[in-house]
Amino acid sequence: MEHKKTEGQDLISVKNLYVEYKSGGETIHAVNGVSFDLEAGKTIGLVGETGAGKTSIARAILRILPDHATKRVGGEIFFKGKELLGLPEQEMRPLRGKSISMIFQDPMTALNPVKTVVEQIAEGIRLHQNMNRKDSLRAAIKMLETVGISQDRAYEYPHQFSGGMKQRVVIAIALACNPELLIADEPTTALDVTIQAQVLDLMKKLQEELGTAMILITHDLGVVAGVCDTVAVVYAGELVEYGTKEDLFDHPRHPYTKGLFGALPDLSKDVNRLSPVEGLPPDPSSLPVGCAFASRCGYATDKCQKGHVEMKRFGDTHYVRCNCCEEG
Amino acid sequence: MIRYIGKRLLQMIPILLTVAILIFTLMYFVPGDPVEIMLGDTATPEQIAAARAKFGLDKPYLIRLWNYLVGIVHLDFGTSYLQGSSVASELFLRFPRTLTLASLSILFTIVVGIPIGIQCAIHANKLSDKIWMFLTMLGNSMPGFWLALLLVILFSVKLGLLPSNGTGGLEYYILPVVANSIGSLADIARQTRSSMLEVIRSDYVVTARAKGLPEKEVIWKHALPNALIPIITVCGSRFGFMLGGTVIIESVFSIPGIGMYMVNGINSRDYPVVQGSIIYIAFIFAFIMLITDLIYAYVDPRIKAQYVKSVKKA
């Protein structure tokens, strides 16, 4: 897909990213040529079903894909003009946790059970900001208070914390060194609805204060509407629709995106049943030649089955990967 | 925590009493008569009767048991029939040797075994891992005495570098320690590998990596502490066994430790020696298990929380 912008403007620019895993002799095509850009201070939402490859994209950016299972990572990721995938490990490490950090999906398992929460936050600060132990602990306690955990609980262990508090700690770890890019992998999925709103508000507030850009991975369109500037819909490791929040919410074009919105309850209309997207995503170890969504799509034609579908542009910012949508 | 330790120490008393009664009863039923073994075939019935009366073997079972238990309470484990020396003082005399051998062995086991296991886990299923796993299997299945003899042939007989037997300086312990620890070392390496493999792919290890920590710190500071519990369990029971005296190693290297003392006692039906040794082993095992449990609490705050809670309730 063509971009009008020059690379210099983007904080991060992912180009044609591929991630392949190996599993029992088979190759799992988790990410298949994903490209997107993000400017400093903005938020992009990666939306899609479980297993669509969202987390793989995130981990590829930080280069923390599981060694033993990863077969190939291809494409380019430019962060402030520097290509990350080819960077030697010693140069990648100072970026992790400092310039780019990540909030993990499951707060229950993301924290080390045998270390105090304050130590887990202070560790990164000590490493990246050259502080001594005492100062780093003080900074970590301040960070805990920022996410709403009082300092007298700082020296407790993760098992003494509730799920919502653990998620706050995970957020505090990610934000401890004021990263320029924050990757939030379903930060609210493991939380109940009341805490979800609190955590999102907190992240938004911190993002505004620190000017952090964010890649938000979620399957919750409500979260996307509240937080994101641009949205990319991921299906079977590909972006099927990509544009501003307004583009996608007001004029969804891809049948899958429409299906996702159709699966949302709408209180203003009188519908008895929600309309889910029927069927299952294709097996990532044997993807179809043509459109990956064809088997679930009501508009699919022979053309969709046969050849790979290219991204088409609609307007300035809206891209759709579908044969049925006419270029405008 | 202190109350927990006190409680555990008190719990040892009934355990040790049970062990004492059991071993006394077992020895009572074991065929073979110490007096006949001691005096030989030429002894007259009068001599045998006199010896029996001297050791109190002519009294009924219950009275002998009672006398023995009363003795134990006063830390008197009786006197050896053969040597006529006090069992307790003999155990005290031999204990430092066994303790030195066991401590050095477990130290060697830990210092060498855990890093091997970690390396294997990091490079799981690669060639180096497969080679090490083969070697540890070999180490596990190789009889200790055979390895001991091979070591003696190489280092003492051929190269003349190390003493082959006896006690003395630290150099006397090198070969016994290696021979004594190879099995445990292989065990620990395998245990470390498997429990590291379990934690090395967990989310918090990825979190640690995402913080930008060097891989070494990720492994040693984040993964290892979480993998330690089963490793400590194996170390504890291995150490317990070693402290109980390793008969074979002590025999090969002629180290007059507790293992040899007990086996000699068994062969000559020297009841007080056998009973005293067994009670010592039971005590040392229970004690090591207590230490192991305390180390658990030190390593894992969740376990510590349980101890503190259980004490509060009690």
Written description of the protein model:
The complex is a heterodimer of chains A (328) and B (314). Chain A has 328 residues and is of the alpha/beta class. Helix content of chain A is 31%, strand content 24%. Chain A has helices spanning 54-62, 89-92, 107-110, 117-129, 133-146, 163-175, 193-210, 221-227, 245-250, 255-262, 302-306; strands at 10-23, 26-39, 43-47, 70-79, 82-83, 100-103, 181-185, 213-218, 230-235, 238-244, 312-314, 318-320. In chain A, the strands form 2 sheets. In chain A, strands 6-7-8-3-9-10-12-11 form an 8-stranded mixed sheet, sandwiched between helices. Chain A has a 4-stranded antiparallel sheet with strand order 2-1-4-5, with helices on one face. In chain A, helix 4 (117-129) packs parallel to helix 6 (163-175). Chain A is globular. Chain B is globular. Chain B has 14 helices and no strands. Chain B has 314 residues and is mostly helical. Chain A binds chain B through residues 62, 64, 66, 68, 93-98, 101-102, 104, 106, 109-115, 120, 123-124, 127-128, 157, 159-160, 170, 173, and chain B through 124-125, 201-204, 206-214, 222, 225-226, 299-302, 305.
